[in-house]
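Appendix B. Worked example

We walk through a single record from start to finish. Start with the input: the chain for HPF/RaiA family ribosome-associated protein, Actinomadura livida, length 102.
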Amino acid sequence: MNATRERPEIRFLTSGDVSAHERAEAERAVRTALADAEGATSVQVTLSVVADASLPRPALAQAVVDLNGRRVRAQAAAPRIDEAIDMLRERLAIRASSSQVS
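Next comes the structure step. The output line below is what the pipeline stores for this chain.
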């Protein structure tokens, strides 16, 4: 891994009750997921929490990454935003690594 390579800025879209701490946690999760990926030029993360207690998974975390000219997308919905962020990290890491193979 080249320690001098630039990491792209992560752009965020949020809706609902999303704290600065949760946003920072999402940034760490995405950076971790992309740690071994080469060629990421843009990253957009969406965090959303719907205030509806009747929904089983009101929290959504989504990332869209431009990786070597390909759009790699991962998302997860969960009862809580921290759970959605954890699942997003796992899914994005898998998709980013499989995108590097081809």
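Two observations about the output. The chain has a mean pLDDT of 92. DSSP finds two helices and four strands in the chain.
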